[in-house]
TrEMBL record:
<dbReference type="InterPro" id="IPR003607">
    <property type="entry name" value="HD/PDEase_dom"/>
</dbReference>
<dbReference type="InterPro" id="IPR006674">
    <property type="entry name" value="HD_domain"/>
</dbReference>
<dbReference type="Pfam" id="PF01966">
    <property type="entry name" value="HD"/>
</dbReference>
<feature type="domain" description="HD/PDEase">
    <location>
        <begin position="24"/>
        <end position="138"/>
    </location>
</feature>
<protein>
    <submittedName>
        <fullName>HD domain-containing protein</fullName>
    </submittedName>
</protein>
Length: 200
């Protein structure tokens, strides 16, 4: 198990560093490493061992590799990359199917169908329920503006985030127990900011 994860780490981190992802404020190597670590936190909290978590750990490493070539539909490119690499390393087909399912589950809006898919969905949006929310939120806004030409006013960005947090649901016990209460505090602050913007 350690060998395929180690090989995948080297491969995926190398891909990201050699591509435009090295310059992205949000979807960069740091994000991928954080999602990998978040999978471990969430999985261990739910009583899973490393062997159980192997497919979702691999998915965490691959899930944003598609950003090296495209922004829209990057998950599909991530799936192609994962399939190619795992097949070349003779990774078992049933586990590969699980890896692919986990990558696809990160598409927005998230619609996980299996327990491991629940884990990666919460790991990918982990920051919604942490103190790093505001910093990462600004990093994402910068990335959208600089690399995709999506420029949001302060008011529009605030409204977009309110809608996103209102519609979002954590899928794991860790997410519900630990992250959700903090997310609700962020939502309150966003709504307070909306009032200040509308009635300065």
């Amino acid at each position: 198990m350690e060998t395929i994860i180690r090989k995948t780490k080297i491969h995926c981190i190398g891909l990201l560093l050699r591509s435009r992802c090295g310059s992205l404020p949000f979807h960069n190597v740091g994000h991928t490493v954080e999602v990998y670590e978040n999978v471990l936190k969430i999985g261990m909290y739910g009583g899973r061992n490393l062997e159980d978590l192997e497919p979702v750990l691999l998915a965490a490493l691959f899930h944003d590799t598609g950003y090296t070539t495209v922004f829209k539909g990057h998950e599909d490119m991530s799936v192609i990359e994962a399939n190619h690499f795992l097949a070349a390393n003779k990774y078992p087909v049933p586990q590969t199917v699980s890896v692919i399912g986990c990558i696809n589950a990160t598409k927005m809006p998230q619609q996980p169908k299996m327990p491991l898919e629940n884990i990666i969905c919460d790991a990918d949006l982990f920051h919604l329920g942490t103190g790093s929310f505001w910093k990462k939120n600004n990093m994402l806004r910068t990335e959208l503006a600089k690399f995709q030409g999506l420029n949001y006013s302060i008011s529009d960005w605030n409204t977009l985030n309110i809608k996103f947090l209102e519609n979002h649901r954590f899928c794991t016990s860790y997410g519900v127990d630990i992250l959700e209460p903090v997310k609700q505090e962020h939502l309150k602050e966003l709504k307070s900011n909306r009032e200040k913007i509308q009635h300065p």
